[in-house]
Amino acid sequence: MTAPTTPTRGYTASKDQLLARLRRIEGQVRGIEKMVEDDRYCIDVLTQISAIQAALDKVGLGLLDGHARHCMHDGAAEGRADEMATEMMAAVGRLMKRG
């Protein structure tokens, strides 16, 4: 009996970098929590929130790139190009919605 294999995703090759970036973002969020606990100036807190949003956007764009280059490529080879494009565009729409 063979062990089940983990599926290859568009981000598999850069998974360690992705996890490191997400951990940095997590640290930034904890930093904002401390800023609020310490009653820091509103604009300073907002500046840090903006930095986190930019970092998350960069992660999202990287994931979209991997999805387009790997997952959509595989889906097209399986005859699912339209389905994959629709799914990706819906994800892009969700990422672009703010406030």
Give a description of the structure.
It is a single chain. The chain is an all-alpha fold. The chain is built from three helices and no strands. The chain has helices at 15-37, 42-77, 81-96. The model has no long low-confidence stretch (mean pLDDT 90).
Key terms:
mainly alpha
Distance between the termini: 51 Å
Helical amount: over 70%
Q: Structural class, from helix and strand content?
A: mainly alpha
What's the count of strands? Answer: 0
Indicate the proportion of strand residues.
under 5%
Order of SSEs: HHH
* Cα-atom radius of gyration: 18 Å
Number of DSSP helical runs: 3
Major sheet description: none
Shape: elongated
SSE layout:
Blueprint: H1 15-37, H2 42-77, H3 81-96
Helix pairs in contact: 1-2, 2-3
Overview in brief:
The protein has 99 residues and is an all-alpha fold.
